[in-house]
TrEMBL record:
Residues 2-228 form the ABC transporter domain. GO terms for molecular function: ATP binding; ATP hydrolysis activity. Pfam families: ABC_tran. This is ATP-binding cassette domain-containing protein. Coiled coil: none annotated. Keywords: ATP-binding, Nucleotide-binding, Transport. PROSITE patterns: ABC_TRANSPORTER_2. Belongs to the ABC transporter superfamily.
Length: 301
């Protein structure tokens, strides 16, 4: 179990993580999503004691990570697969890890087998590894001490489709045996397939959390007019509930009813679409304010 309570991390005047609270439960895979620079890595770095919290606290398995003796036996971490010692071979990286954790060297072969790195590949220096091989080695390293908690930053990065499918099976199996998995990812379809719970952040704040089903249930029609205030009045007059979302409104009704309400008030719509496009649509809408790129139709030509 990982608990994050009121976590804030500032860098000078800039707030990278702003008062976030969530839990990653045992027996479940929790997907941690957000656009570039949203604060995912910062949050994970605080979890494993690499960055200090400005306020709030994080508990991993009920403890402050820094206070866990032999942490690799309890918490498996993969933050930056490229940070492994480039001059060592894959086998050496794992052997050093196993020694530090007091594990038998047989565990190294077991892990190499698990992540499908061949003997020949394990004998190559990490600097000559492909990104996907580094990622596999990082996952092997995280699992080496048979921990109860896994914290993985973009573990699917660089993996080919077969590798992604393999990792999905591995992490699901790990959670089914009672482990806690927190993983960040940009691969939304992948997260939708694997995550039992989702935490979404944008600009350091949580914008949504819950199971994929509960988050996607809240869909309706995303609508944007040249005058959103008048659009709000039009929806209210038609008995349609709505909430502001990104640059428009999320209406709790079908697109046709929303379109009629706008027509009755002679409003010019800029966007009108059902938000049933899965996690990707939800993600883009909820994090619209935090996106660098204008994703409105026609913005890219
Ligand atoms: N040491 C630091 N000093 C100043 N700003 C920092 C530092 N570390 C992170 N930041 C800023 O904090 C914000 C959050 O960064 P973070 O790496 O946590 O985002 P992220 O969600 O992991 O993004 P990405 O998906 O691009 O990896 C960014 O604006 C980043 O520039």
């Amino acid at each position: 179990m990982i608990t994050v309570e009121g976590l804030t991390r500032k860098y000078g005047a800039f707030t990278a993580v702003d008062d976030i609270t969530f839990t990653a439960e045992p027996g479940r895979v929790t997907g941690f999503l957000g656009p570039n620079g949203a604060g995912k890595t910062t949050t994970m770095r605080v979890m494993v004691g690499l960055t200090r919290a400005t306020r709030g606290r994080v508990r991993v398995g009920g403890h402050d990570y820094a206070a866990i003796p032999n942490p690799g036996r309890h918490v498996g971490v993969l933050l930056d697969a490229s940070a492994q010692h480039a001059g060592r071979t894959g086998r050496e990286v794992l052997t050093v890890g196993a020694r530090t954790m007091g594990l038998p060297s047989s565990r190294v072969d077991e892990m190499l087998g698990l992540v499908s790195l061949s003997d020949e590949e394990a004998g190559r220096r990490v600097r000559n590894y492909s990104l996907g091989m580094r990622q596999r080695l990082g996952i092997a390293h995280a699992l080496l001490g048979d921990p109860q908690v896994l914290i993985l930053d973009e573990p699917a990065n660089g993996l080919d489709p077969a590798g992604i499918r393999w990792m999905r099976g591995l992490l699901k199996g790990y959670a089914e045996r009672g482990g806690t998995v927190l993983l960040s990812s940009h691969l939304l379809n992948e997260v939708q397939l694997i995550a039992d719970d989702i935490v979404m952040i944008g600009r350091g704040r949580i914008v949504a959390q819950g199971t994929p089903e509960s988050l996607l249930q809240d869909v309706g029609t995303f609508v944007r007019a040249t005058d959103n205030d008048r659009l709000g009045t039009a929806l209210t007059d038609s008995g349609i509930a709505f909430a502001p979302q990104g640059k428009g409104l999320l209406a709790d009704s079908e697109a046709v009813a929303v379109g009629r309400a706008a027509r009755d008030h002679q409003l010019t719509l800029v966007e009108l679409r059902p938000t049933d496009g899965g996690l990707e649509d939800l993600f883009l809408e909820l994090t619209a304010d935090a996106q660098r790129d204008d994703l409105t139709e026609g913005a890219v030509r």
